[in-house]
Amino acid sequence: MKFVIDQKIFGKFPNLTVGIIAVQGIHNTEENAEVIDLLHQEERAVRERITIETLATHPKVMAWQEAYRAFGAKPKDHLSSVENLYRRVLGGAALRHINTFVDMYNYVSLKYMLPVGGEDLEKIKGDIQLTFAGPDGPPVLLLGDKDPRPPKEGEVIYRDGLGAICRRFNWREADRTKLTEETKNAVLVIEGLPPVSRNEIMGAVDELKNLIDHHCGGEASLFILDASNPTASW
């Protein structure tokens, strides 16, 4: 399987860096108290280092707001996944347990203040591409929605052979490829725009990979993609 970033993406976001973890043979069934405790500790740490009033002007959040504007999305209407996660935590909510894989990537997203997402590879058809939506993309049912809707032409999407699997870069993921307790093979994606450095992406990838090794097992392959290296194969 391949994960490919369209070169047109780098035309608009030349300094984008994407960390990839492709893992096979994971065990994701039981609720993991250690991971949940780690997540809640990081929630408390977030509340100590930032406030809801200063969140929108944090450089890492502003980078995604500008990226969304660059392809025509309104950041106030469509929050990046990391801003949405932070707003939930700063609003006083404890993130609910979904499954161990999601709990782990939410922890990493909070700690590094980076968008992190994941897909079930057994539900992916063909290769994965980060690209711009065309004019006639098929409707996609997003997590939490009741009705499928097509991506808007020109928005940044992740897609496979059947259609979009995540809309507006990292705004909302598709229900079709979501991670569940039955997931055995998965791909996790960590995205960074300046001021995020390549080393910071590598640190987040390494920590998430170590958590997977410890709590879920499996065989993982790691990749760091950018304009000079836009393709991963496993």
Automatic annotation (TrEMBL):
Domain B3/B4 tRNA-binding intervals: 62-217
Gene3D superfamilies: Phenylalanyl-trna Synthetase, Chain B, domain 3 (3.50.40.10)
The protein's name in its UniProt record: B3/B4 tRNA-binding domain-containing protein
Source organism of this protein record: Candidatus Uhrbacteria bacterium RIFCSPLOWO2_02_FULL_49_11
Superkingdom, natural source: Bacteria
Stretches assigned to coiled coil: none
Molecular function terms from GO: phenylalanine-tRNA ligase activity; RNA binding
Alphabetized Pfam families for the sequence: B3_4
